[in-house]
Design brief:
With about 150 residues, this protein is an alpha+beta fold. About 35% of the residues lie in helices and about 45% in strands.
């Protein structure tokens, strides 16, 4: 009697973790993350980011904790015209998935009409915690910019 209950509980936990960290789910979650950065969706980011969240930017030029990122994305000048990830791959081990790829970010220039694009190599680490996916860490490295920087 105990074994079927344990197996049922284990299957339910595995299904829940699989739903959170399945390839399809993580791709969708990562796209939501990019969109939230683009539009300054603090409510979504507050829920997604782990309390221990940490982001190391290009050549360690900036390092951000959760509170710092939430404050930065609310500034209109920080919001991008568009953000998109591409050429992504995933590596999974247990309750952790690392998504890596390229992110292209379009930002308006000072004239408000033209824009520049920057491309970054990124690694984002998602962890399943109590049935929810949390973004624990990000590292980005600029690899190209339309303005030559």
């Amino acid at each position: 009697m105990v074994i079927p209950i344990l197996l049922s509980s284990l299957a339910a936990f595995s299904a829940q973790a699989e739903t959170c960290l399945s390839e399809k789910s993580v791709v969708a979650l990562d796209a939501q993350y990019e969109k939230a950065l683009q539009v300054g969706d603090v409510k979504f980011l507050e829920k997604l980011l782990a309390p221990e969240f940490y982001w190391v930017h290009n050549l360690a030029s900036m390092k951000e904790k959760k509170s710092e990122l939430l404050a930065r994305v609310q500034k209109p000048e920080e919001q991008a015209k568009e953000r998109r990830s591409h050429d992504t791959t995933q590596q999974r081990l247990g309750n952790t998935v690392v998504v890596q790829g390229l992110s292209s970010v379009d930002k308006l220039n000072a004239d408000g009409k033209t824009f520049r694009t920057s491309r970054y190599q990124f690694m984002r680490t998602y962890v399943e915690d109590k049935g929810e996916c949390k973004l624990l860490a990000v590292q980005t490295m600029k690899v190209w910019s339309s303005d030559g920087n």
